[in-house]
Amino acid sequence: RDIDRLNRNFNTNVGMEYFLTEKSSITGSVFYRYGEDEDLTTNVTDNYINGTQVLGTTREEKQTENDDSWQFSLNYINNFDNKGHKLTADFQFETDKETQFTTIGEKEDYNIENRELQLIGEDINTTEDQTEYLIQADYVRPFAEDSQFEAGYRGNFENEITDYRLFQENPETGNLELNESLTNVFDYTENVNALYTQYGSKFGQFSFLLGLRLENTQLKGQIDSELTDAELEEVFGFPIDTDFDKNYLGLFPTVNFIYELAEEENITLGYNRRINRPRGWYINPFPSRSSNNNVFQGNPNLEPAYSNAFDLGYLKRWEKLTLTSSIYYQHETESFERIEENIPGTNVIRTIPVNLASNKRTGAELGLLYNPADWLRLNGSFNFFKFQTEGEFNGRDYDAENTSWFARFSSKVTLPAKIDWQTNAFYRGAADGIQGRREGYLSIDLALSKDIFNENATLSLNVRDLLNSRKRESYTSTDTYDSYS
Questions:
Q1: 359: closest CA among 404, 405, 390, 327?
Q2: Which stretches does DSSP call E strand in 170-304?
Q3: Which residues partner with 161 through β-bridges?
Q4: Over the stretch 297-335, which tens digit does the pLDDT of each residue have?
């Protein structure tokens, strides 16, 4: 699959701060974004029997997209004193509308055995309307010199309506006709309310930070389709809930301890519990149409995943060098995994996210920050880990155990004329997963920037993926069909 993208975007932001008193103020801002995208996806499929190519097709997907987004925000801050005692409050409203039009056509490249093949054209019209509200308030109260109490509330309310219409070519007339089986409207709501507090203090060489968050998550969705629940189960291969309203209430503690061995040397011990909520496109059950042989389908039965993480760290600073290191363990239940399976009676591979039983990860990380001169800063890290996945779906065992690694490097160089040059590199190592292998890849980004007009403006130039090497390559094996993508 080869994808060519042309993105044209415009962004603007206007804000104003009004001081009510010397220690309190209100800030208001308006942000607007407009985008026009043109994508061309070419999907080349080769079919084999006993290692011999017998059928090849090329599928082209031309997609245009317009995106209008507005964001309005208000912020209030009141500093009770100059020692960090303060109250802040935020309100934010965002509305976004995306309109996509897609034309799909497919042609036969070769057909050695003259197999009967029906390639039909498709048009897809998709409209996504999204609204989001954010309400947040935070209170910070220092005590003495080395203690601080914090408390707050955060509410995030998001609704997204996806109107999906699929038109397919009638082989007899050549006209495009609405496919009512796959045309649908998906109304999805995610509401998150959280109360949180934390307290930190220091006693000599020992300090700690204790936090607790009470959070309620509501995931609500409704699917408007011409198909009945029984017909949807037959199409998608498993029962789905077309009108769901799920609520999850949980406590999420955070514990961090620090012991200073010396002024520039310490040991840390931490624990936290987190929730990983499924995104809207992971829940929408109607499949993508980018390929006749490979489709992605969401799963409205997805539940949030919960993880418990522990880490032990060591930090040491010298004059020009900083060393950070840690070992960690993470156990996630109901973890998301993308399962690829052959739809019975077809040569179609469906990718679907499911909740597997558990995912365990154990690893270690080493980082170095080196400042040999004022004009040069180097930063690098290396992370090696072992992961273990356990679970089954549709009667098949998906247990897997393997190791992998990734590394990061960045540098910042101040050139003559006060030009800043920054380089970021990332490499992810290969890994075996629950159904195959993912190859490693390298990514390098460059950026140049310079302050102009007496440092009242900045001019920047960015280059992403310098070597054109950010390519995902994987091999997946299913029970009855192998695919290479």
A1: 390
A2: 176-178, 184-203, 206-225, 243-262, 265-276, 294-296
A3: 129, 187
A4: 888 888 999 999 999 999 999 999 999 999 999 999 999
